[in-house]
Design a protein that fits this description.
The longest helix has 23 residues. The chain is about 35% helix and about 30% strand. Strand 1 and strand 2 form a beta hairpin. It is built from 7 helices and 8 strands. The C terminus is likely disordered. The protein is an alpha+beta fold. Strands 1-2-3-4-5-6-8-7 form an 8-stranded mixed sheet, sandwiched between helices. The chain has a single domain, classed as Aminopeptidase, CATH 3.40.630. The structure holds coenzyme A. The site of coenzyme A has 20 residues, from strand 5, helix 5 and helix 6. It comes from Candidatus Brachybacterium merdavium. One of its GO terms (molecular function) is acyltransferase activity, transferring groups other than amino-acyl groups. It holds the Pfam family Acetyltransf_3. This is GNAT family N-acetyltransferase.
Length: about 200
């Protein structure tokens, strides 16, 4: 059975963040910083006003995540379960087998490693919570901060698509596709645990 985000245990706590699925009422708190030009430069959707933002937020609630510091929402993201491509006769086995991630941080909190911390948590939710077999993320090639996050959390660049994306500036920009498999994620984590193990056993001596 495929779990949904809301069926997982919440909140998820990292060193500096508390994550939980988005709620309807979060829209108002997010809007003042989400609407800023420096945030909107690379995001998919630019809402004209708070009412439109609220409508879009509601429409995406099934896969919306927020991260809080104290009472304040400082990041929004998504972990969107999706069907993998398949031949039609095996479509049932491909249903819900992958997830797409996304992340947006309040500009006041950027540059402190929190975007990376949030993305690591979203990856964990996809693989350890939803148990998908593959995670994907996409960005404009010019979005260097987001590209760096992809690299840092272990995604592999699987494609650069020349001028495939129309930016609202009117320019056709390169797009990038990134991904990691569950098997690769587990191998990375097992490798990390093994590397830590001798230090731990020495401590206990
Ligand atoms: C992308 C975003 C989440 C990064 O958040 P952040 O908290 O500043 O990220 P971090 O502090 O974890 O930094 C991640 C890495 O990107 C690097 N980085 C940040 N801004 C950069 C820039 N303009 N150019 C190049 N690298 C940059 C950092 O140096 C860091 O790499 P390092 O650890 O090797 O030094 C944030 O900039 C954002 O919300 N942008 C607007 C929305 C957006 O672009 N979302 C993604 C759409 S695909």
């Amino acid at each position: 059975m495929s779990l949904t985000l809301r069926e997982l245990d919440w909140p998820l706590t990292t060193d500096r963040l508390q994550l939980r699925p988005g709620l309807s009422e979060d829209a108002a708190q997010i809007w003042p910083w989400y609407r800023l030009p420096e945030v909107q430069q690379w995001t998919t959707t630019l809402s004209a006003d708070e009412a439109e933002h609220r409508q879009r937020w509601e429409a995406g609630l099934a896969h919306a995540m927020v991260a809080l510091q104290g009472e304040r929402i400082i990041a929004v993201g998504k972990v969107e379960r999706q069907d993998a491509w398949s031949q039609t006769d095996v479509a049932e086995q491909a249903r819900g087998q992958q997830a797409e991630l996304g992340w947006v941080l309040d500009p006041r909190q950027q540059g402190q490693g929190l975007g990376t911390e949030f993305a690591v948590a979203l990856l964990r939710i996809a693989f350890e919570g939803l148990e998908v077999r593959r995670v994907e993320a996409a960005c404009f090639a010019d979005n260097h901060a987001s590209r760096r996050i992809m690299e840092k959390i272990g995604l592999r660049c699987e494609g650069v698509f020349r001028q495939e994306s129309l930016h609202r500036s009117g320019r056709w920009l390169d797009g990038m596709a990134w991904a990691i498999l569950a098997t690769e994620y587990r191998a990375r984590h097992e490798g990390a645990s093994r590397a830590e193990a001798p230090a731990r056993s020495q401590e206990t001596r």
